[in-house]
Please model this.
Amino acid sequence: MKPSDHPPSVLDDLFATRETPPWAPAPSRKERARTGRREPAEQRSLLGEILDLMFAPLLLLWPLSVAVTFLVARSLADVPFDRSLVDRATMLAEHLRIVASAPRAEPLANTASHLLHSDDGGRVFFQVLDVDGQRLAGEADFPRPGLYDFPEAGRVKLRNAALRRDDLRVAYTYVPKSGATTEGSGQWMLIQVGETLERRTTLANEIIKGVIFPQFLILPLVLVLLWFGLSRGLAPLKLMQQRIRERRPDDLSPVDPREVPEEVAPLVQAFNELLLRQARSLDAQKRFIADAAHQMKTPLAGLRTQAELAMRDTDPKQLQRSLAQLVHSASRTAHLISQLLALARTENLRDAVVLQPIDLCPLACAVASDWADQALTRRIDFGVEYGDDSTRIAGHPILLRELINNLIDNALRYTPEQGMVTVRTRTTPDEIVLEVEDDGSGIPAPERALVFERFYRVPGAQGDGSGLGLPIVREIAVQHGAQVEIHDGIRWPAERGQGAGTRVSVHFARLSEPDG
Model:
């Protein structure tokens, strides 16, 4: 392998393994079914979603509202009728107290019929029982109170009952018989007055009609007003959509979030962040194209000049030298193109890198073995140093391989023959450090911050580098959250005088060991 040769960029493998290029047509429904991919969700209207979420609960609660309204209306209707029923039972009880010493059935029945007469069509039933349970007047089959319903003097109670398939509302009370004590003697007469529920139901229905029917008339108006309000509320979104469509293709300026409602402001902010990333990507592409054009102009012009000179040479030896120079220039140009593409690809992957646990030491050893032949050809003492500690980090193996390749390439390019290059991994309590150290020409301290700029080369530096190796290293390190530092390396041998080479260190965060 010649000194100017460079292993092929392994980033090609990264892009070769992508499932679907962005320009590929969308898969058909059969293809999605074969590969197990889900069908895309149907696009829905935001206005329709809001209306559905509002009206679906309303329609579910509507029957419940009608039932609650009926119960409330029925309770309201019961109040006056219960009061009237209690008054009738009280009047009948007062009359019975007057004649309690010798109540007779026929006069009692006539009096009760007169007191309980109803002019509004309601049906009223009554019953009067003597102390021994004998009926004095009223309905014979009128249901009696419960077994545990004890008498309470002067109190009229209410209950529901049924008489000959008619539902009744019953008011009843106990009257002590003349000559008996009110408590403990058991000398009580029972008075019951019952009324059918037709009038109550009619009044309850009237109340429901007065409440429900206006709701049926108001509901369509509510729907129209809601639709109108939601449409006006979504108008800023339509206005923003129109403004975005009217933009020029090269206009990547942010959208003012103050022009949209507060709830939509986070969406606009996210869109502005996307525009910012897109602007950065376009700037990087423009910068890459400009840099590539500028850097490619000189080697291509040199290739053309050397080819023209070779065509004029008649001496076979001179022709061989010219062709060798052409091959060397072509190799340098190919190396420059490879590094330009590697830098562009690493920048494009800045927001899409997925890191995974990886052991850095075996990877560094594997990459270093690919450069052993080139180091041997140049008679460079090339080796790898590592310890027994774990070197697990979170990284992308393909990008890390590219990083190590560029570090070793730089070290070999700027190290003279019979020099020394060492690849080293070491550990600290918090970090895993990758180092590539050489005894080459070195980088002066004032220049160490500048060598990470594209195409920058230290003035007077020996070697034919392109000035892209360390920028690629820094870009990949940033994507891994790592820090790159440059220090003095291996001191020069005595025969070369005083000086030191270069040590480039990349500091990665240590990945905790898995349990078990």
User: Anything to note?
Assistant: Confidence is low (pLDDT under 50) at residues 1-25. The first helix runs from residue 11 to 16. The chain is about 50% helix and 15% strand. The CA atoms of residues 441 and 460 lie 10 Å apart.
